[in-house]
Every structure is written in structure tokens, then in C-alpha cells.
């Protein structure tokens, strides 16, 4: 499967990385000078398993070079504001005129239409409007910011990948491609489907830290330990809850588990117990139980955890520790095949493999790596 990625930041590159991890031949079309907010390309693991060329889309022949790639591709991914690709001459109409089977994936925050479609934004603004940001954090503090995992990657990248793969299945069955409008506001709202059902049924209060899964429940949350670490507790079911209290050494005061008006008292007891030992000590206590308790690890600690190490959840490639490709397949295993693609480094190879006009031969990849 051939994928053209028009370089951007955030959810588009991550979606293309996932496709590359799964085995697609992803060619990233970098712009001269690189995208904004970029880190050193040598460390940008979202560009692993890809190849890169550099195209100046504002040059007279720039759009034609991209259309040459689109003609030979199965999927194209772009993350411009609505209308930008059309003005550059590489919009869906231009691409489908050359390749009617192409799946054209559009990754934006606000979507291709609506009052905010032309406005700038980032993850935090998108999830703010969907109600999901407002669910996270303590009631007496501002909503907690979940990095850019909830909007950009969960509500954005993953929905784009699902969409383009479904559209690719349709294109291969019918011979007709289509446009996939993957908006972070849509995907993030979709992630909250269960919560909306609970809200409608009266089983969810529309405020922070007042519910079973948002930190309001004393047996579903995090607690500080004696050494300043934290333990995560998810003892929802009866038998897990009973095991949790037994190992913690705490009694349930008057069945507070079932009475949310007594959750504060129960939380105080649990918090006091956790403060009596270190994170390592509590990890040992709960290690062989079904109490659903785990230590809260940092990014640098996580790869060394025995379970994650045994599964190879993280891998080292080129001196960079990074998450291994996921999910896993019994017949077609995935791997980190190559490190982050350097802008323009693969121009000559892509021209050869994709059968597009070769770049000038001033150097191994053409002048400045441009196509």
C-alpha cells in the first residue's frame, strides 16, 4: 500500500506513522525549511518507517510533482486548513482527476465545514468544545490538560486511520475513491459515547470528579505514597474491591462503597493508608493480586517494567527508546524498520520505486534533496 503524507505536525504525521508501522510505503512530502514546532528530525519517531522527499508546493512545478505521487498512491493524507490544498492545486478534485481510486484523508481540528472551520486551533481547544476536557481534573481546580493524547492522537489520528482504511476497502471493491473528513472534534466527541449514554440515563453527573470513572470514586483514582510516588486504583467490581481493601488494610465504613455521600470518608482512609508506605512497597503488596492496583510510572520508568519489557512494548532503535508498533499480528509481524526519515533523503529512491520523473542529478538526491 502506497501512502503520500503532506508534511504537517501532530495528528497527521502520527496517523501516517501508524500506517507505516503496519507496512505501508509512506512517502512524506516535506516542505523546504520543515514544519513549525518541529524537533530535530533525527529524534522525530513519528517519521519512522517512512521515506521523505522535499517539494516546494509554491514553485511552478511543485503541485505537479505531488500529483505524480498521488497518481500512484492508494492514500493521501493532508492536514491543511479547508481550501488550502485546493488553492495549491493538489486538492481532492485535482488528485482524483489523476487517480479516481485514491483515498484522500483530511486531518483537521474543526473539520472541513462549520463556523470554526477556517480558524486556527490546537488539541486543547478542540477537546474543550467537545465536553471531554471539562470532565478531567479536580472540581476545585482548572481542568487537567491530558498532553495532546486525547484530541490529536485518540480523537484525530486513530479516527483518520480507521477512516482511510475503511475507504480503501471500499475503493478496492468499487474502483472509486473518496474524501475522508477526520476532525478532532468529531473523533473526541465520539470517544465520549458511553459517557453520554450514562448522562442520559442519570448515571453520570455533568461535573468533574463526581463519577465512577473521573476520579470522584475513591476506589478508582490515584493516591500519593510516602516517598512522593503515586499508585493507581481501579477496584470497581466487588471481588476486586474486597481484595483491594484487604491488602491495603482498610475497612469500608458502613458500606461507603455503595453510598457516594460517604465517598469522602472512604477516600481519606485510603489516602492515609497509602501515605504509610513507599510506592515500591505498595507495588510489592499488590504485585500478585487482582486488586487492580498499579504504580504510576514516568515515561523513562515505563520501558523497564517487567511486564512491558517481557512483551517488548517499547523498543530501542538508533539509540532512541520508543513505543513498538501496535497492534500485533500473528501472520504479519510489525517492526521499526527504519529510523526517522530525514527531509529529502529519499528523493532518488522514491522516484525510482514509484516511477516518477527523476530529480536533477547534481547530487545523490538532487539539489538540496528537492524533487
Descriptive keywords:
35% helix, 371 residues, six-stranded parallel sheet, Rossmann fold
Q: Give unreliable regions as ranges.
A: 361-371
Residue share in helix? 25-40%
Q: Give the CATH H-level superfamily of the largest domain.
A: Crotonobetainyl-coa:carnitine coa-transferase, domain 1
Provide the CATH architecture of the largest domain.
3-Layer(aba) Sandwich
- What does the radius of gyration come to? 25 Å
InterPro entries: CoA-transferase_III, CoA-Trfase_fam_III, CoA-Trfase_III_dom3_sf, CoA-Trfase_III_dom_1_sf
GO molecular function: transferase activity
Protein name: CoA transferase
Region (Disordered): 316-371
Question: What features would you describe in this structure?
Answer:
This protein has 13 helices and 11 strands. The chain is α/β, with parallel strands linked by helices and 371 residues long. The protein has a 6-stranded parallel beta sheet with strand order 3-2-1-4-5-6, with helices on both faces. Helix 5 (123-130) crosses helix 6 (149-174) and helix 6 (149-174) packs across helix 7 (184-191). The two termini are 22 Å apart. Residues 361-371 have low confidence and may be disordered. This is CoA transferase. One of its GO terms (molecular function) is transferase activity. Keywords: Transferase.
Amino acid at each position: 500500500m502506497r501512502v503520500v503524507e503532506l508534511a504537517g505536525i501532530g495528528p497527521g504525521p502520527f496517523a501516517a506513522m501508524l500506517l507505516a508501522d503496519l507496512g505501508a510505503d509512506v512517502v512524506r512530502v516535506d516542505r523546504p525549511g520543515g514544519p513549525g514546532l518541529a524537533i530535530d528530525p533525527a529524534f522525530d519517531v513519528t517519521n519512522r518507517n517512512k521515506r521523505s522527499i522535499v517539494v516546494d508546493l509554491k514553485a511552478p512545478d511543485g503541485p505537479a510533482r505531488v500529483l505524480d505521487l498521488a497518481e500512484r498512491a492508494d492514500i493521501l493524507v493532508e492536514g491543511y486548513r479547508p481550501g488550502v490544498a485546493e488553492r495549491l492545486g493538489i486538492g481532492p478534485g485535482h488528485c482524483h482527476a489523476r487517480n479516481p481510486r485514491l483515498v484522500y484523508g483530511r486531518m483537521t481540528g474543526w473539520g472541513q465545514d462549520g463556523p470554526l472551520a477556517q480558524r486556527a486551533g490546537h488539541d486543547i481547544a478542540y477537546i474543550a468544545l467537545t465536553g471531554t476536557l471539562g470532565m478531567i481534573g479536580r472540581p476545585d481546580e482548572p481542568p487537567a490538560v491530558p498532553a495532546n493524547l486525547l484530541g490529536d492522537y485518540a480523537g484525530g489520528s486513530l479516527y483518520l486511520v480507521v477512516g482511510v482504511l475503511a475507504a480503501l476497502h471500499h475503493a478496492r471493491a468499487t474502483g472509486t475513491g473518496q474524501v475522508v473528513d477526520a476532525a478532532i472534534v468529531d473523533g473526541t466527541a465520539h470517544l465520549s459515547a458511553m459517557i453520554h449514554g450514562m448522562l442520559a440515563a442519570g448515571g453520570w453527573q455533568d461535573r468533574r470528579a463526581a463519577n465512577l470513572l473521573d476520579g470522584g470514586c475513591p476506589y478508582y483514582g490515584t493516591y500519593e505514597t510516602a516517598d512522593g510516588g503515586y499508585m493507581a486504583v481501579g477496584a470497581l467490581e466487588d471481588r476486586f474491591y474486597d481484595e483491594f481493601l484487604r491488602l491495603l488494610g482498610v475497612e469500608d465504613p458502613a458500606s461507603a462503597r455503595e453510598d457516594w455521600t460517604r465517598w469522602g470518608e472512604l477516600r481519606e482512609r485510603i489516602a492515609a493508608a497509602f501515605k504509610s508506605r513507599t510506592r515500591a512497597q505498595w507495588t510489592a503488596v499488590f504485585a500478585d493480586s487482582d486488586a487492580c492496583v498499579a504504580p504510576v510510572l514516568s515515561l523513562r520508568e515505563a520501558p523497564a517494567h517487567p511486564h512491558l519489557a517481557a512483551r517488548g512494548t517499547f523498543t530501542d532503535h538508533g539509540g532512541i527508546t520508543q513505543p513498538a508498533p501496535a497492534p500485533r499480528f500473528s501472520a504479519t509481524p510489525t517492526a521499526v524498520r527504519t529510523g526517522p526519515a530525514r527531509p529529502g533523503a529519499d528523493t532518488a529512491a522514491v522516484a525510482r520505486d514509484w516511477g516518477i520523473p527523476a530529480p536533477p542529478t547534481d547530487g545523490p538526491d538532487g539539489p538540496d534533496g528537492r524533487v
